[in-house]
Fold this sequence. Notes:
Layout: H1 3-29, E1 58-60, H2 114-117, H3 179-202, H4 209-221, H5 226-242, H6 248-262, E2 271-274, E3 281-286, H7 293-306, E4 311-316, H8 321-332, E5 337-340, H9 347-361, E6 365-370, H10 377-391, E7 399-405, H11 410-422, E8 427-431, H12 441-449, E9 453-457, E10 465-467, H13 470-478
Parallel strand pairs: 1-2, 3-6, 3-7, 4-5, 4-6, 7-8, 8-9
Antiparallel strand pairs: 9-10
Helix pairs in contact: 3-4, 3-13, 4-5, 5-6, 6-13, 7-8, 9-10, 10-11, 11-12
Bound molecules: guanosine-5'-triphosphate.
Guanosine-5'-triphosphate is lined by residues 95-96, 287, 289-295, 317, 320, 323, 371-373, 431-432, 434-435, 457-460, 464.
Enzyme class: hydrolase
Pfam families: SRP54 (PF00448), SRP54_N (PF02881)
Region (Disordered): 53-139
Amino acid sequence: MTAEAWILIAAAAAILLIALVVGFVLYRRRQISLTATKAPTAVEDRSGGYKAGGGFSFSQGGTATAPRQPVGERTDVDGQPGVGDDAAVPRDAPKRGITEIRLPDPVVDEATPVAEKSAPAVDKPAPVASEPAVSEPVVEDRAVEEPLVEEPKLPTAPATPQSLDTAPTIDEIAPTEGRLDRLRGRLSRSQSAVGKSLLGLLGGGDLDEDSWEEVEDTLLIADLGSAVTTTVVAALRERMATRNVRTEAEVRALLREVLIEALHPELDRSIRALPHDDHPSILLVVGVNGTGKTTTTGKLARVLVADGRRVLLGAADTFRAAAADQLQTWGERVGADTVRGKEHADPASVAFDAVSKGIELGVDVVLIDTAGRLHTKTGLMDELGKVKRVIEKRATVDEVLLVLDATIGQNGLMQARVFADVVAISGVVLTKLDGTAKGGIVFQVQHELGVPVKLVGLGEGADDLAPFEPAAFVDALLG
Ligand SMILES: Nc1nc2c(ncn2[C@@H]2O[C@H](COP(=O)(O)OP(=O)(O)OP(=O)(O)O)[C@@H](O)[C@H]2O)c(=O)[nH]1
Protein backbone atom coordinates (compact mmCIF):
# COMPACT_ATOMS: atom_id res chain seq x y z
CA MET A 1 0.00 0.00 0.00
CA THR A 2 1.31 3.41 -0.94
CA ALA A 3 1.96 6.20 1.53
CA GLU A 4 -0.90 8.20 -0.04
CA ALA A 5 -3.31 5.37 0.60
CA TRP A 6 -2.22 5.23 4.24
CA ILE A 7 -2.73 8.99 4.58
CA LEU A 8 -6.23 8.69 3.10
CA ILE A 9 -7.15 5.86 5.48
CA ALA A 10 -5.82 7.84 8.47
CA ALA A 11 -7.80 10.94 7.42
CA ALA A 12 -11.01 8.89 7.01
CA ALA A 13 -10.48 7.31 10.43
CA ALA A 14 -9.94 10.75 12.01
CA ILE A 15 -13.15 12.12 10.44
CA LEU A 16 -15.08 9.07 11.64
CA LEU A 17 -13.73 9.52 15.15
CA ILE A 18 -14.69 13.20 15.23
CA ALA A 19 -18.21 12.38 13.98
CA LEU A 20 -18.59 9.76 16.71
CA VAL A 21 -17.51 12.16 19.45
CA VAL A 22 -19.82 14.96 18.22
CA GLY A 23 -22.72 12.52 17.90
CA PHE A 24 -22.17 11.25 21.43
CA VAL A 25 -22.06 14.74 22.91
CA LEU A 26 -25.28 15.74 21.16
CA TYR A 27 -26.92 12.51 22.30
CA ARG A 28 -25.89 13.11 25.91
CA ARG A 29 -27.34 16.58 25.88
CA ARG A 30 -30.77 15.26 25.06
CA GLN A 31 -30.70 12.58 27.72
CA ILE A 32 -31.55 12.75 31.37
CA SER A 33 -29.75 10.27 33.42
CA LEU A 34 -30.64 9.86 37.01
CA THR A 35 -27.85 9.59 39.45
CA ALA A 36 -29.24 9.46 42.93
CA THR A 37 -25.93 10.33 44.51
CA LYS A 38 -25.72 14.05 43.93
CA ALA A 39 -26.92 16.15 46.84
CA PRO A 40 -30.24 17.82 46.10
CA THR A 41 -29.87 21.35 44.87
CA ALA A 42 -31.63 23.91 47.00
CA VAL A 43 -34.97 24.77 45.48
CA GLU A 44 -35.11 28.33 44.34
CA ASP A 45 -38.05 30.04 45.97
CA ARG A 46 -40.13 31.35 43.15
CA SER A 47 -43.31 31.38 45.15
CA GLY A 48 -43.46 35.12 45.32
CA GLY A 49 -43.36 35.09 49.08
CA TYR A 50 -46.35 32.84 49.68
CA LYS A 51 -45.55 30.66 52.60
CA ALA A 52 -47.35 27.45 53.25
CA GLY A 53 -49.52 27.65 56.26
CA GLY A 54 -49.84 31.41 56.39
CA GLY A 55 -53.02 32.99 57.60
CA PHE A 56 -55.72 34.69 55.59
CA SER A 57 -54.73 38.00 54.14
CA PHE A 58 -57.17 40.88 54.06
CA SER A 59 -56.89 44.18 52.27
CA GLN A 60 -58.99 47.24 51.67
CA GLY A 61 -60.92 47.50 48.45
CA GLY A 62 -59.84 50.33 46.25
CA THR A 63 -56.32 50.31 47.61
CA ALA A 64 -55.13 46.88 46.65
CA THR A 65 -55.83 46.16 43.07
CA ALA A 66 -55.01 42.68 41.96
CA PRO A 67 -52.97 42.96 38.79
CA ARG A 68 -55.21 41.46 36.20
CA GLN A 69 -53.55 38.70 34.39
CA PRO A 70 -54.31 38.82 30.68
CA VAL A 71 -57.21 36.53 30.04
CA GLY A 72 -55.74 33.53 28.35
CA GLU A 73 -56.82 31.99 25.17
CA ARG A 74 -59.97 30.07 25.84
CA THR A 75 -59.38 26.47 25.29
CA ASP A 76 -62.85 25.08 24.96
CA VAL A 77 -65.56 27.07 23.42
CA ASP A 78 -67.98 24.33 22.67
CA GLY A 79 -71.07 23.79 24.74
CA GLN A 80 -73.31 26.30 26.40
CA PRO A 81 -72.65 27.78 29.78
CA GLY A 82 -74.22 25.71 32.50
CA VAL A 83 -76.21 28.21 34.44
CA GLY A 84 -79.26 27.63 36.55
CA ASP A 85 -81.40 24.61 36.05
CA ASP A 86 -79.72 23.80 32.77
CA ALA A 87 -76.39 23.39 34.42
CA ALA A 88 -74.89 19.97 34.75
CA VAL A 89 -74.48 20.42 38.47
CA PRO A 90 -76.24 18.14 40.88
CA ARG A 91 -77.83 21.18 42.42
CA ASP A 92 -80.69 19.48 44.05
CA ALA A 93 -78.63 16.81 45.69
CA PRO A 94 -79.49 16.53 49.36
CA LYS A 95 -77.77 19.23 51.30
CA ARG A 96 -76.50 19.09 54.82
CA GLY A 97 -77.29 21.97 57.09
CA ILE A 98 -74.63 23.41 59.32
CA THR A 99 -76.22 21.80 62.32
CA GLU A 100 -75.42 18.42 60.86
CA ILE A 101 -71.80 19.25 60.39
CA ARG A 102 -69.44 18.02 63.06
CA LEU A 103 -67.26 20.88 64.05
CA PRO A 104 -63.59 20.46 64.74
CA ASP A 105 -62.72 20.02 68.38
CA PRO A 106 -62.32 23.36 70.07
CA VAL A 107 -58.74 24.44 70.12
CA VAL A 108 -57.70 25.49 73.54
CA ASP A 109 -55.07 27.96 73.58
CA GLU A 110 -52.60 29.76 71.71
CA ALA A 111 -54.66 31.40 69.13
CA THR A 112 -56.97 33.68 70.97
CA PRO A 113 -60.46 32.29 70.98
CA VAL A 114 -62.14 34.22 68.36
CA ALA A 115 -65.46 35.06 69.82
CA GLU A 116 -63.59 36.81 72.57
CA LYS A 117 -61.82 39.28 70.40
CA SER A 118 -64.63 39.80 68.01
CA ALA A 119 -68.20 40.83 68.18
CA PRO A 120 -68.75 42.85 71.24
CA ALA A 121 -71.30 41.85 73.83
CA VAL A 122 -71.23 38.25 72.80
CA ASP A 123 -70.60 35.76 75.52
CA LYS A 124 -68.70 32.65 74.83
CA PRO A 125 -70.83 29.74 75.94
CA ALA A 126 -69.84 26.18 75.34
CA PRO A 127 -70.49 25.10 71.79
CA VAL A 128 -73.86 23.48 71.38
CA ALA A 129 -74.97 22.35 68.01
CA SER A 130 -78.64 22.92 68.42
CA GLU A 131 -80.87 24.27 65.71
CA PRO A 132 -81.51 27.89 66.52
CA ALA A 133 -84.97 29.24 66.18
CA VAL A 134 -85.31 31.12 62.94
CA SER A 135 -87.30 34.25 63.35
CA GLU A 136 -89.67 35.65 60.85
CA PRO A 137 -88.11 37.34 57.88
CA VAL A 138 -87.54 40.95 58.65
CA VAL A 139 -87.05 42.64 55.33
CA GLU A 140 -90.13 43.68 53.48
CA ASP A 141 -90.59 41.88 50.22
CA ARG A 142 -90.46 44.85 47.93
CA ALA A 143 -89.06 45.11 44.51
CA VAL A 144 -86.38 47.71 44.04
CA GLU A 145 -87.11 49.80 41.04
CA GLU A 146 -83.69 51.06 40.25
CA PRO A 147 -84.51 54.67 39.45
CA LEU A 148 -86.35 55.00 42.74
CA VAL A 149 -83.24 54.19 44.67
CA GLU A 150 -81.38 57.24 43.44
CA GLU A 151 -81.79 58.79 46.87
CA PRO A 152 -81.15 55.76 48.96
CA LYS A 153 -82.91 55.73 52.25
CA LEU A 154 -83.14 53.13 54.89
CA PRO A 155 -86.11 50.82 54.74
CA THR A 156 -89.14 52.23 56.48
CA ALA A 157 -89.82 48.93 58.11
CA PRO A 158 -86.24 48.59 59.27
CA ALA A 159 -84.45 45.48 58.21
CA THR A 160 -83.62 44.67 61.76
CA PRO A 161 -81.06 41.96 61.76
CA GLN A 162 -81.69 38.99 63.94
CA SER A 163 -80.87 40.01 67.45
CA LEU A 164 -77.92 38.44 69.14
CA ASP A 165 -80.30 37.67 72.01
CA THR A 166 -81.75 34.91 69.91
CA ALA A 167 -78.31 33.52 69.18
CA PRO A 168 -76.77 32.59 72.45
CA THR A 169 -74.64 29.80 71.10
CA ILE A 170 -71.31 30.99 69.82
CA ASP A 171 -68.81 28.59 68.34
CA GLU A 172 -65.16 28.36 68.95
CA ILE A 173 -63.49 28.89 65.63
CA ALA A 174 -60.41 26.97 64.59
CA PRO A 175 -57.41 29.31 64.37
CA THR A 176 -57.13 30.91 60.97
CA GLU A 177 -53.34 30.71 60.98
CA GLY A 178 -51.91 27.65 59.33
CA ARG A 179 -55.22 26.52 57.86
CA LEU A 180 -53.73 25.20 54.65
CA ASP A 181 -51.07 23.33 56.57
CA ARG A 182 -53.68 21.60 58.68
CA LEU A 183 -55.89 20.83 55.70
CA ARG A 184 -53.09 19.94 53.32
CA GLY A 185 -53.53 16.23 53.95
CA ARG A 186 -56.88 16.38 52.22
CA LEU A 187 -55.33 17.88 49.13
CA SER A 188 -52.45 15.46 49.07
CA ARG A 189 -54.68 12.43 49.19
CA SER A 190 -56.58 13.36 46.08
CA GLN A 191 -53.95 15.24 44.17
CA SER A 192 -50.68 13.49 44.63
CA ALA A 193 -51.45 10.79 42.05
CA VAL A 194 -50.96 13.45 39.38
CA GLY A 195 -47.67 14.62 40.87
CA LYS A 196 -46.37 11.08 41.26
CA SER A 197 -47.13 10.20 37.69
CA LEU A 198 -45.43 13.40 36.43
CA LEU A 199 -42.35 12.76 38.54
CA GLY A 200 -42.28 9.17 37.31
CA LEU A 201 -42.36 10.25 33.68
CA LEU A 202 -39.89 13.10 33.94
CA GLY A 203 -37.52 11.19 36.13
CA GLY A 204 -37.55 8.14 33.93
CA GLY A 205 -34.48 9.05 31.90
CA ASP A 206 -34.57 9.04 28.08
CA LEU A 207 -37.35 11.51 27.41
CA ASP A 208 -38.34 11.01 23.82
CA GLU A 209 -41.32 12.52 22.03
CA ASP A 210 -43.60 9.77 23.30
CA SER A 211 -42.62 10.51 26.88
CA TRP A 212 -43.32 14.22 26.42
CA GLU A 213 -46.69 13.35 24.97
CA GLU A 214 -47.40 11.31 28.08
CA VAL A 215 -46.42 14.26 30.26
CA GLU A 216 -48.81 16.40 28.24
CA ASP A 217 -51.63 13.86 28.58
CA THR A 218 -51.12 13.65 32.34
CA LEU A 219 -51.44 17.41 32.66
CA LEU A 220 -54.53 17.46 30.44
CA ILE A 221 -56.18 14.65 32.39
CA ALA A 222 -55.50 16.60 35.58
CA ASP A 223 -57.58 19.43 34.05
CA LEU A 224 -54.82 21.98 33.49
CA GLY A 225 -56.31 22.79 30.12
CA SER A 226 -54.47 22.85 26.82
CA ALA A 227 -53.07 26.39 27.02
CA VAL A 228 -51.52 25.93 30.48
CA THR A 229 -50.32 22.44 29.56
CA THR A 230 -48.51 23.77 26.49
CA THR A 231 -46.80 26.47 28.55
CA VAL A 232 -45.80 24.05 31.29
CA VAL A 233 -44.43 21.43 28.89
CA ALA A 234 -42.48 24.03 26.89
CA ALA A 235 -40.91 25.42 30.07
CA LEU A 236 -40.01 21.93 31.30
CA ARG A 237 -38.43 20.92 27.97
CA GLU A 238 -36.43 24.08 27.67
CA ARG A 239 -35.16 24.13 31.25
CA MET A 240 -34.40 20.42 31.39
CA ALA A 241 -32.16 20.79 28.37
CA THR A 242 -30.42 24.02 29.33
CA ARG A 243 -29.95 23.20 33.01
CA ASN A 244 -28.69 19.72 32.44
CA VAL A 245 -31.17 18.31 34.93
CA ARG A 246 -29.98 14.90 36.04
CA THR A 247 -31.01 13.84 39.50
CA GLU A 248 -34.45 12.99 40.77
CA ALA A 249 -34.27 15.92 43.19
CA GLU A 250 -33.44 18.27 40.33
CA VAL A 251 -36.39 17.01 38.30
CA ARG A 252 -38.69 17.57 41.26
CA ALA A 253 -37.33 21.05 41.93
CA LEU A 254 -37.77 22.04 38.30
CA LEU A 255 -41.30 20.67 38.11
CA ARG A 256 -42.17 22.51 41.31
CA GLU A 257 -40.75 25.75 39.96
CA VAL A 258 -42.60 25.51 36.65
CA LEU A 259 -45.94 24.61 38.24
CA ILE A 260 -45.70 27.42 40.81
CA GLU A 261 -44.93 29.86 38.01
CA ALA A 262 -47.99 28.64 36.11
CA LEU A 263 -50.10 29.53 39.16
CA HIS A 264 -48.94 33.15 39.06
CA PRO A 265 -47.88 33.56 42.69
CA GLU A 266 -47.48 37.28 42.09
CA LEU A 267 -51.26 37.80 41.97
CA ASP A 268 -52.81 39.59 44.92
CA ARG A 269 -54.85 37.00 46.78
CA SER A 270 -55.86 39.12 49.74
CA ILE A 271 -59.58 39.33 50.45
CA ARG A 272 -60.73 42.93 50.23
CA ALA A 273 -62.58 42.83 53.49
CA LEU A 274 -61.03 45.63 55.48
CA PRO A 275 -63.48 48.41 56.29
CA HIS A 276 -63.28 51.88 54.78
CA ASP A 277 -63.17 55.00 56.92
CA ASP A 278 -66.89 55.64 56.66
CA HIS A 279 -68.43 52.37 55.59
CA PRO A 280 -67.94 48.61 55.72
CA SER A 281 -66.31 46.63 53.00
CA ILE A 282 -68.86 44.91 50.80
CA LEU A 283 -68.34 41.40 49.50
CA LEU A 284 -70.63 39.69 47.04
CA VAL A 285 -70.57 35.90 46.81
CA VAL A 286 -71.82 34.58 43.47
CA GLY A 287 -71.98 31.23 41.69
CA VAL A 288 -74.33 28.52 40.52
CA ASN A 289 -76.35 26.97 43.31
CA GLY A 290 -74.94 23.85 44.84
CA THR A 291 -71.35 24.98 44.39
CA GLY A 292 -71.07 25.95 48.05
CA LYS A 293 -71.89 29.67 48.08
CA THR A 294 -73.80 29.73 51.34
CA THR A 295 -71.33 27.42 53.01
CA THR A 296 -68.43 29.55 51.80
CA THR A 297 -70.12 32.75 52.97
CA GLY A 298 -70.59 31.19 56.39
CA LYS A 299 -67.03 29.89 56.55
CA LEU A 300 -65.69 33.28 55.49
CA ALA A 301 -67.78 35.00 58.16
CA ARG A 302 -66.12 32.76 60.73
CA VAL A 303 -62.67 33.66 59.46
CA LEU A 304 -63.49 37.37 59.59
CA VAL A 305 -64.98 37.15 63.06
CA ALA A 306 -61.88 35.25 64.11
CA ASP A 307 -59.88 38.18 62.76
CA GLY A 308 -61.79 40.50 65.06
CA ARG A 309 -64.18 41.95 62.48
CA ARG A 310 -67.84 42.75 62.96
CA VAL A 311 -69.68 40.97 60.21
CA LEU A 312 -73.20 41.39 58.82
CA LEU A 313 -74.62 38.78 56.45
CA GLY A 314 -77.08 39.51 53.64
CA ALA A 315 -79.20 36.57 52.49
CA ALA A 316 -79.87 37.67 48.94
CA ASP A 317 -80.43 34.07 47.88
CA THR A 318 -84.16 34.45 48.18
CA PHE A 319 -84.93 31.60 45.83
CA ARG A 320 -84.79 29.03 48.57
CA ALA A 321 -85.96 29.93 52.08
CA ALA A 322 -83.70 27.23 53.45
CA ALA A 323 -80.68 29.02 52.02
CA ALA A 324 -81.43 32.08 54.16
CA ASP A 325 -82.03 29.86 57.20
CA GLN A 326 -78.74 28.13 56.53
CA LEU A 327 -76.88 31.44 56.27
CA GLN A 328 -78.52 32.80 59.37
CA THR A 329 -77.51 29.71 61.29
CA TRP A 330 -73.90 30.16 60.18
CA GLY A 331 -74.10 33.77 61.35
CA GLU A 332 -75.69 32.98 64.68
CA ARG A 333 -72.98 30.54 65.52
CA VAL A 334 -70.32 33.23 65.32
CA GLY A 335 -72.36 36.18 66.48
CA ALA A 336 -72.92 37.74 63.06
CA ASP A 337 -76.36 39.15 62.26
CA THR A 338 -78.26 38.34 59.09
CA VAL A 339 -80.48 40.57 57.00
CA ARG A 340 -82.94 38.49 55.05
CA GLY A 341 -86.08 38.83 53.00
CA LYS A 342 -89.12 36.73 52.38
CA GLU A 343 -88.86 33.80 50.05
CA HIS A 344 -88.74 35.09 46.47
CA ALA A 345 -88.20 38.66 47.63
CA ASP A 346 -86.22 40.84 45.27
CA PRO A 347 -82.57 39.88 45.90
CA ALA A 348 -81.44 43.41 45.05
CA SER A 349 -83.76 44.76 47.73
CA VAL A 350 -82.35 42.43 50.37
CA ALA A 351 -78.78 43.22 49.33
CA PHE A 352 -79.52 46.95 49.47
CA ASP A 353 -81.06 46.61 52.92
CA ALA A 354 -78.10 44.58 54.15
CA VAL A 355 -75.63 47.20 52.98
CA SER A 356 -77.72 50.02 54.46
CA LYS A 357 -77.95 48.18 57.76
CA GLY A 358 -74.25 47.47 57.71
CA ILE A 359 -73.49 51.16 57.28
CA GLU A 360 -75.99 52.10 59.98
CA LEU A 361 -74.58 49.59 62.47
CA GLY A 362 -71.01 50.46 61.63
CA VAL A 363 -69.93 46.88 60.99
CA ASP A 364 -66.64 46.12 59.30
CA VAL A 365 -67.80 43.76 56.58
CA VAL A 366 -71.06 42.97 54.81
CA LEU A 367 -71.08 39.54 53.14
CA ILE A 368 -73.87 39.02 50.63
CA ASP A 369 -74.87 35.54 49.54
CA THR A 370 -76.68 35.51 46.18
CA ALA A 371 -78.79 32.97 44.30
CA GLY A 372 -77.45 31.08 41.32
CA ARG A 373 -80.60 29.19 40.48
CA LEU A 374 -81.45 30.97 37.30
CA HIS A 375 -82.74 29.41 34.17
CA THR A 376 -81.01 31.49 31.60
CA LYS A 377 -77.93 33.58 31.18
CA THR A 378 -80.15 36.59 30.56
CA GLY A 379 -81.95 36.03 33.85
CA LEU A 380 -78.62 35.84 35.61
CA MET A 381 -77.39 38.99 33.88
CA ASP A 382 -80.48 40.87 34.90
CA GLU A 383 -80.53 39.71 38.48
CA LEU A 384 -76.87 39.81 39.44
CA GLY A 385 -76.22 42.97 37.49
CA LYS A 386 -79.13 44.60 39.28
CA VAL A 387 -77.98 43.39 42.71
CA LYS A 388 -74.58 44.96 42.14
CA ARG A 389 -75.95 48.20 40.69
CA VAL A 390 -78.44 48.63 43.51
CA ILE A 391 -75.84 47.94 46.21
CA GLU A 392 -73.58 50.51 44.62
CA LYS A 393 -76.15 53.20 45.26
CA ARG A 394 -75.01 52.87 48.87
CA ALA A 395 -71.40 51.68 48.66
CA THR A 396 -68.90 50.24 46.22
CA VAL A 397 -68.64 46.50 46.07
CA ASP A 398 -65.08 45.70 47.14
CA GLU A 399 -64.91 42.05 46.24
CA VAL A 400 -66.94 39.74 44.05
CA LEU A 401 -66.06 36.16 44.88
CA LEU A 402 -67.09 33.52 42.38
CA VAL A 403 -67.63 30.13 44.00
CA LEU A 404 -66.81 27.18 41.73
CA ASP A 405 -67.14 23.48 42.45
CA ALA A 406 -63.79 21.86 41.63
CA THR A 407 -65.35 18.46 41.09
CA ILE A 408 -67.26 19.44 37.97
CA GLY A 409 -64.21 20.34 35.89
CA GLN A 410 -64.97 21.90 32.53
CA ASN A 411 -68.57 22.71 33.46
CA GLY A 412 -67.25 24.91 36.20
CA LEU A 413 -65.23 26.82 33.68
CA MET A 414 -68.21 27.40 31.48
CA GLN A 415 -70.15 28.73 34.45
CA ALA A 416 -67.21 30.90 35.38
CA ARG A 417 -67.20 32.55 31.97
CA VAL A 418 -70.88 33.40 32.23
CA PHE A 419 -70.47 34.96 35.66
CA ALA A 420 -67.36 36.81 34.56
CA ASP A 421 -69.42 38.35 31.75
CA VAL A 422 -72.12 39.46 34.19
CA VAL A 423 -70.13 40.89 37.10
CA ALA A 424 -66.50 41.86 37.44
CA ILE A 425 -65.17 38.94 39.45
CA SER A 426 -62.22 39.81 41.65
CA GLY A 427 -61.49 36.41 43.12
CA VAL A 428 -62.41 32.76 42.87
CA VAL A 429 -63.21 30.31 45.65
CA LEU A 430 -62.67 26.75 44.54
CA THR A 431 -64.75 24.44 46.73
CA LYS A 432 -64.70 20.68 47.20
CA LEU A 433 -61.03 20.34 46.38
CA ASP A 434 -61.08 17.59 48.97
CA GLY A 435 -63.27 15.54 46.69
CA THR A 436 -61.37 15.59 43.43
CA ALA A 437 -58.11 14.37 41.97
CA LYS A 438 -58.39 17.08 39.36
CA GLY A 439 -56.78 19.93 41.22
CA GLY A 440 -55.43 21.12 37.89
CA ILE A 441 -58.65 23.07 37.46
CA VAL A 442 -57.01 25.75 39.64
CA PHE A 443 -54.52 26.48 36.86
CA GLN A 444 -57.19 26.65 34.20
CA VAL A 445 -59.61 28.81 36.13
CA GLN A 446 -56.96 31.46 36.71
CA HIS A 447 -55.76 31.32 33.15
CA GLU A 448 -59.23 31.59 31.67
CA LEU A 449 -60.63 34.22 34.00
CA GLY A 450 -57.51 36.23 34.61
CA VAL A 451 -58.42 36.48 38.31
CA PRO A 452 -56.70 34.69 41.18
CA VAL A 453 -58.07 31.77 43.10
CA LYS A 454 -58.12 33.29 46.59
CA LEU A 455 -59.69 30.62 48.74
CA VAL A 456 -60.19 26.89 48.64
CA GLY A 457 -62.84 24.74 50.28
CA LEU A 458 -61.39 21.53 51.62
CA GLY A 459 -64.33 19.92 53.34
CA GLU A 460 -67.81 20.38 54.71
CA GLY A 461 -66.63 21.32 58.17
CA ALA A 462 -67.23 24.86 59.35
CA ASP A 463 -63.53 25.70 59.33
CA ASP A 464 -62.54 23.85 56.19
CA LEU A 465 -61.78 27.00 54.23
CA ALA A 466 -58.18 27.99 53.54
CA PRO A 467 -56.34 30.69 51.68
CA PHE A 468 -54.95 29.49 48.38
CA GLU A 469 -51.16 29.39 48.38
CA PRO A 470 -49.52 28.34 45.10
CA ALA A 471 -46.35 26.88 46.62
CA ALA A 472 -48.22 24.89 49.25
CA PHE A 473 -50.66 23.68 46.62
CA VAL A 474 -47.88 22.50 44.31
CA ASP A 475 -46.12 20.79 47.22
CA ALA A 476 -49.33 18.91 47.96
CA LEU A 477 -49.62 18.06 44.27
CA LEU A 478 -46.12 16.62 44.17
CA GLY A 479 -46.77 14.61 47.33
N1 LIG B 1 -66.67 18.24 50.44
C1 LIG B 1 -66.98 19.53 50.42
N2 LIG B 1 -68.28 19.89 50.41
C2 LIG B 1 -68.57 21.21 50.37
C3 LIG B 1 -67.55 22.20 50.31
N3 LIG B 1 -68.16 23.42 50.26
C4 LIG B 1 -69.51 23.18 50.28
N4 LIG B 1 -69.75 21.86 50.35
C5 LIG B 1 -71.06 21.19 50.39
O1 LIG B 1 -71.76 21.48 49.19
C6 LIG B 1 -73.16 21.45 49.43
C7 LIG B 1 -73.80 22.70 48.82
O2 LIG B 1 -73.38 23.83 49.56
P1 LIG B 1 -74.25 25.17 49.66
O3 LIG B 1 -73.43 26.14 50.41
O4 LIG B 1 -75.62 24.89 50.14
O5 LIG B 1 -74.31 25.59 48.14
P2 LIG B 1 -75.01 26.88 47.50
O6 LIG B 1 -74.17 27.24 46.33
O7 LIG B 1 -75.22 27.93 48.51
O8 LIG B 1 -76.39 26.29 47.01
P3 LIG B 1 -77.85 27.02 46.98
O9 LIG B 1 -78.15 27.44 48.38
O10 LIG B 1 -78.77 25.96 46.47
O11 LIG B 1 -77.69 28.17 46.05
C8 LIG B 1 -73.33 21.36 50.94
O12 LIG B 1 -73.66 20.02 51.26
C9 LIG B 1 -71.97 21.72 51.50
O13 LIG B 1 -71.69 21.11 52.73
C10 LIG B 1 -66.17 21.77 50.31
O14 LIG B 1 -65.21 22.54 50.23
N5 LIG B 1 -65.96 20.42 50.36
